[in-house]
């Protein structure tokens, strides 16, 4: 299955590379900085078509199209896809953006793949089989001290209207860490946690397609991913904190107000 997912992501990634820094249509969603482009829409159409060609009975949850039912409603396999995580980056010509694909069976994450088209990077995982970067096994880092840790985060699209909680969380974490980074792609941030480059990650108001594949990749790399209360997150999680076991615990306590 992962090989098929990789081929799908490569095909869509080739299209995205061909359109990068070219002229294409862009519009806003509910917030003026929550952008969607014709590249997002075409990429999603391509992925949905590729999945349907191979698994016509499966259900699909896509960022732009929502739930797309398969031919048999009793089929318990579903796909969660983000055709272009980091649209704002893409629109502005910044090279950090990702294609994210996750497969669930009976609601449980079974496989995840994230492709960074311009970086030519692939992150993948299957439940119980570990996580990989370009085919090589990866593990979360072993730094146990938050004060020297590099932590990644992101900001919700409505931060211009509702910035209080965003700033409060940021002000709690920044003085306690070695530094904070923001790439503009939650999927990529979590992959870098899985790879041991970032020590931890937190963000609020994420959507299922933002995190589905990346959550499995972090867990299979030996990391922890929960909400701020320490509960295992669902795809509807409104808050996410991740890291190795030590960093995750300290960061989670900070975010929970402890």
Overview of this protein structure:
With 258 residues, the protein is of the alpha+beta class. It folds into 2 domains: 2-138, Fructose-1,6-Bisphosphatase, subunit A, domain 1 (Fructose-1,6-Bisphosphatase, Chain A, domain 1, 2-Layer Sandwich), CATH 3.30.540.10; 146-255, 3-Layer(aba) Sandwich (D-Maltodextrin-Binding Protein, domain 2), CATH 3.40.190.80. The protein is 32% helix and 28% strand. The chain has helices at 2-19, 38-54, 87-91, 164-173, 186-194, 208-220, 245-255, and strands spanning 26-28, 35-37, 59-62, 66-68, 77-85, 98-105, 108-116, 121-126, 131-133, 136-138, 150-153, 179-181, 200-204, 224-226, 239-243. The strands form 3 sheets. The protein has an 8-stranded mixed sheet with strand order 4-3-5-6-7-8-9-10, with helices on both faces. Strands 12-11-13-15-14 form a 5-stranded mixed sheet, sandwiched between helices. A two-stranded antiparallel ribbon has the order 1-2. Helix 1 runs antiparallel to helix 2. The longest helix has 18 residues, at 2-19. The radius of gyration is 17 Å and the shape is globular. The model has no long low-confidence stretch (mean pLDDT 90).
Write down the domain tally: 2
The biggest beta sheet reads: 8 strands, mixed
Which percent range fits the helix content?
25-40%
CATH fold naming of the largest domain: Fructose-1,6-Bisphosphatase, Chain A, domain 1
- Tally of helical runs: 7
Strands in their spatial order, largest beta sheet = 4-3-5-6-7-8-9-10
Gross morphology: globular
Number of strands: 15
How do the helices and strands line up, and which of them pair or pack?
Blueprint: H1 2-19, E1 26-28, E2 35-37, H2 38-54, E3 59-62, E4 66-68, E5 77-85, H3 87-91, E6 98-105, E7 108-116, E8 121-126, E9 131-133, E10 136-138, E11 150-153, H4 164-173, E12 179-181, H5 186-194, E13 200-204, H6 208-220, E14 224-226, E15 239-243, H7 245-255
């Amino acid at each position: 299955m992962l090989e098929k997912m990789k081929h799908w992501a490569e095909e869509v990634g080739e299209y995205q590379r061909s359109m990068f820094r070219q002229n294409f249509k862009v519009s806003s969603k509910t917030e003026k900085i929550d952008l969607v482009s014709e590249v997002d829409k075409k990429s999603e159409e391509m992925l949905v078509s590729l999945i349907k060609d191979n698994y016509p009975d499966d259900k699909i949850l896509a960022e732009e199209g929502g739930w797309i039912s398969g031919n048999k409603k009793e089929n318990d396999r579903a796909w969660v896809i983000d055709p272009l995580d980091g649209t704002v980056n893409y629109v502005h010509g910044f090279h950090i953006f990702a294609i994210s694909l996750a497969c669930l069976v009976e609601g449980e994450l079974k496989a995840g793949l994230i492709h960074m088209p311009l970086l030519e990077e692939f992150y993948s995982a299957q439940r119980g089989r570990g996580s990989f970067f370009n085919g090589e096994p990866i593990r979360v880092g072993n730094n146990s001290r938050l004060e020297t840790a590099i932590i990644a985060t992101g900001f919700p699209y409505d931060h211009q209207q509702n910035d209080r909680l965003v700033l409060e969380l940021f002000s709690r974490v920044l003085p306690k860490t070695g530094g904070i980074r923001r790439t503009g792609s939650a999927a990529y941030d979590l992959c870098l946690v899985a790879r041991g480059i970032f020590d931890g990650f937190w963000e609020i108001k994420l959507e299922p397609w933002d995190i589905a594949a990346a959550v499995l990749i972090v867990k299979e790399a030996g990391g922890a991913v929960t909400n701020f209360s320490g509960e295992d997150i669902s795809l509807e999680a409104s808050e996410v904190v991740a890291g190795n076991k030590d960093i995750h615990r300290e960061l989670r306590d900070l975010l929970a107000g402890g």
